[in-house]
Write a structure and sequence with these properties.
It contains six helices and 16 strands. The two termini are 25 Å apart. The chain is 27% helix and 31% strand. The chain is globular. Helix 5 packs across helix 6.
């Protein structure tokens, strides 16, 4: 994979920096698309890092320090890139943190991405992520379940919790359309930054939206479905398991229009 920059705390990461991370799984991150050196929903990304650090480590990296690390990486990258910012503790895994253990920020940039065109088919699997509200690393189940879904003839997997509620995809949030309103699944899951952008901009556009429990049995009542993540505000889904979902071009257009309405800002 091509990377333009890999930096730890604002400087080029060395092999010594990266070696402890090679097999590490106790960290969290955010992923963003940068266009012209700017980001949509920067406040949501910063809040994600802050809240996840507080949850996992009991302390946070100051926002201005995070911003400085983002600026340092972008200064050495093309104008349009994909960017990942990962926060981890020098204490590593399987140990208790000491008073001198610091949080570090690893930033890497790579080629810009926009996601698949779709439409996609999804296969459901019963799965609930640990710390679902945190975008954390080391999730072997996501790739494992993606490959299982492909083995069932689908493009990707959609997670169903123990109560039968659809929650999210392997690397996606789910959104549904009932013909007049955007429907967000009610379940324990990661609140995506693109999801947050779309929700606040859909509000500003005056389009109704609601949160409700959605099961596979409810799918025939839906007029459309998409997946979204940092790559894109909407990729159409044409089938979940054996249930076909109608094309919803107006829904897809709404989501992309809402996303474009979010201003770009600089770190």
């Amino acid at each position: 994979m091509t990377y333009f920059v890999v930096q730890r705390d604002g400087r080029t990461a060395t092999a010594e920096d990266l070696a402890p991370l090679a097999f590490a799984g106790h960290a969290h991150f955010t992923a963003m698309q940068v266009r012209g050196g700017q980001v949509r929903g920067l406040d949501l990304h910063l809040e994600r890092l802050r809240s996840a650090s507080a949850r996992m480590f009991g302390r946070v990296v100051p926002e201005e320090r995070v911003r400085a690390h983002l600026r340092a990486a972008l200064a050495q990258s093309p104008d349009d890139v994909s960017l990942l910012a990962t926060v981890y503790s020098s204490a590593g895994e399987f140990t208790l943190p000491g008073p001198d253990d610091e949080l570090a920020v690893l930033v890497r940039t790579g080629p810009a991405a926009s996601g698949p065109q779709g439409p996609l088919t999804l296969a459901t699997v019963e799965y609930e992520r640990v710390l679902p509200e945190v975008k954390h690393v080391g999730e072997v189940a996501k790739t494992h379940l993606l490959r299982q879904a492909e083995g069932r003839g689908a493009d990707d997997a959609a997670f169903v919790d123990r109560r039968g509620r659809l929650s999210e995809g392997t690397i996606w949030n789910l959104a549904f359309w009932d013909g007049t309103s955007v429907v967000w699944p009610d379940a324990e899951m990661l609140g995506g930054t693109t999801m947050g952008i779309v929700r606040r901009q859909v509000d500003r556009l005056g389009v109704p939206q609601r949160v409700q429990e959605v099961t596979v049995a409810d799918l025939p009542t839906m007029a459309g479905c998409v997946v979204m993540n940092s790559w894109t505000p909407g990729v159409p889904v044409r089938r979940i398991d054996a249930v076909p979902l109608p094309e919803a071009p107006s829904f897809l257009s709404l989501l992309h229009r809402a996303y474009r309405a979010e201003p770009l800002t600089s770190p």
